[in-house]
Amino acid sequence: MTYYDEVADAAASLDCRLGSLAPAIGIVLGSGLGAVADAVSPTAVIPYAAIPHFPQSTVEGHSGRIVFGMLAGVPVIVMQGRVHSYEGYTPLEVTFPMRVLGALGLRAVVLTNAAGGIAEGYRVGQLVLLADHINMMGWNPLLGPNEPRFGFLPGAGRRFFDMTEAYSKPLRALARQSAEEEGFALEEGVYLATAGPSFETPAEIRAFRILGATLVGMSTVPETLVARHMGIEVLGISCVTNLAAGLSSTPLSHEDVNEIGRQVEGRLAAFLKRLTPKIAASLKASL
Ligand code: HPA
Question: Average pLDDT in the 41-64 region?
Answer without folding.
Answer: 87
